[in-house]
Amino acid sequence: MEQVRAIQDFDAARFRAFWKSLGATFTGRPRRLPSLDAVLAAAGAEGRSFGGVHEIPLNAIVGTAAPPGKAGDFDPGFLPVARRLRNRWTRLYREMVEGDELPPIDVYKVGDGYYVIDGHHRVSVARSLGRPTINARVIEVKTRAPIGTNVDPHELLRAAEYAAFLESTQLHRTRPQARLECSRLGRYDEIFKHILGHRYFMGLESGRQVSLSEAAASWYDNVYTPIADVIRKHKVLEQLPGWTEADVYVEITRRWLALSQAGKPAGPHPAAHALLDDAEALGWWQRRRLIQLGLERRRQPRSAGETK
Q1: Using CA atoms, how far apart are residues 81 and 20, in angstroms rounded to an integer?
Q2: Predicted confidence (pLDDT) per residue in 78-99, tens digit
């Protein structure tokens, strides 16, 4: 009986993978599992350590560390794509349903997401059965730029920008507490220009050449942190869902300059009020947040009832 159910569920899963691939063709969404190599190339690997063996959430498994050939066996939702997977897939299905103890899968943990080294079939079957977690042997990978679970081309470009920014400024070493995560592309270039300007004036004041890493650390202490304090005082992030502190820093400095050029009272506090009064900016970000939430919901695994 379980063999029949296993075959039926495998065929149903392949059918869903087929229709999702058709939909992806029209929407331009990726049809393959995100690759760990692409993520590490963007975010910049810093080191690895053993994270132990424990239960991990299946919906946080977002990609693969397998070679390209094997990675193509499953779609981004870990639905099986190839018919040749059926024998192994259905065998694991029966073993899981009957309560057999299976070895833990092997994964890399990068940021909030996990990438499967070994155990793709077990992940696929567990998701099909609606299981919330799976036992895993975890290797934690530290990266310069943080990576979430929504690994798409935009996220990788953003991570690559952040990694390049950190490589140039060395802020992750001189100020490890700094978390300058921007949600929009191009903003690290703008922040980098602020640091270059700060470096120029430091050189004039000290009469010597200031290194970029020294200037970045000084900018973080004397420019960014006071503005971040203003952001927290006015509880700006609570009023702007989806924004990051670094996003707000950039917007406040823009409005500070605009107020000064217009001959109006300027500074971080008036600029923060100007941002919160900007209905167009608020509307744009609210629409963006709704789009993000929709994408996140689509990435959630289906319940057991929906998979059969």
Answers
A1: 11
A2: 888 888 888 898 999 889 998 8
Amino acid symbol at 230: V
pLDDT at 99: 87
User: How crowded is residue 216: how many other Cβ atoms within 10 Å of its Cβ?
Assistant: 28
At 2, list the tokens.
């379980």
Higher pLDDT, 230 or 301: 230
Q: Is there a contact between 114 and 107 (Cβ–Cβ < 8 Å)?
A: yes
Paired tokens of 259: 């107020």
List helix spans (H) across the chain. Answer: 2-27, 36-43, 68-71, 86-97, 120-128, 153-169, 171-174, 187-206, 212-219, 225-233, 236-239, 245-261, 268-276, 279-299
- Stated length of the chain: 308
Q: In the structure encoding, which two tokens stand for residue 232, read together?
A: 């927290």
So where are the chain's domains?
2-145, 153-277
Tell me the H-state helices in 74-116: 86-97
> In terms of CATH architecture, what is 2-145?
Alpha-Beta Complex (3.90)
Q: Do 124 and 96 touch, CB atoms closer than 8 A?
A: no
How far apart, in whole angstroms, are the C-alpha atoms of residue 162 and residue 243? 16
Kindly state the DSSP code that residue 132 receives in the 8-state scheme.
S
